[in-house]
Design brief:
Layout (H helix, E strand, L loop, with lengths): L1 H20 L3 E3 L2 E9 L7 E10 L5 E7 L3 E12 L2 E6 L3 E3 L4 E4 L5 E7 L8 E8 L3 E10 L10
Parallel strand pairs: 2-11
Antiparallel strand pairs: 1-2, 2-3, 3-8, 3-9, 4-7, 4-10, 5-6, 5-9, 10-11
Amino acid sequence: MKIAVGLLLALVASLVAPASDAHDYRLAALAIAHPFARATPPGAQVGGAYMTIDNTGAAADQLVRASSAAADAVQIHTMEMQGNVMRMREVSGVDLPAGARVELKPGGYHLMLVGLRKPLADGARVPLRLTFAHAGSIDIEVAVEPMTAGPHATH
């Protein structure tokens, strides 16, 4: 009987655990999926944050600002090839067309956490506030994954 109860509790825990690990968010017509960052080495002053944003609505929106208590500033950046050189630059926002998915990912649009107050440690959660032109603001948590993590290592 004790074994059966233990197995039942383990089964229930395994069914509940994925929901508690999930960190997807919704704000109006915007669905924000799997916000993550890679761990940074000791002494690093910058880190990147990434996520997928689906605009399920009939009107376009734009990510216009981000902030975090974990950094002095959060900048919206893009990376693009210019000849044979990859260039990163700050942009004023990320357009979110109606009915479209936009990925903030390594090598493309991303959020730069500048002036980190401490390194981003694997397994930590970093608070981040996203502000959109029309949908408003939402507070989310960014899951910090290993330095070697791919775009969606735990997704």
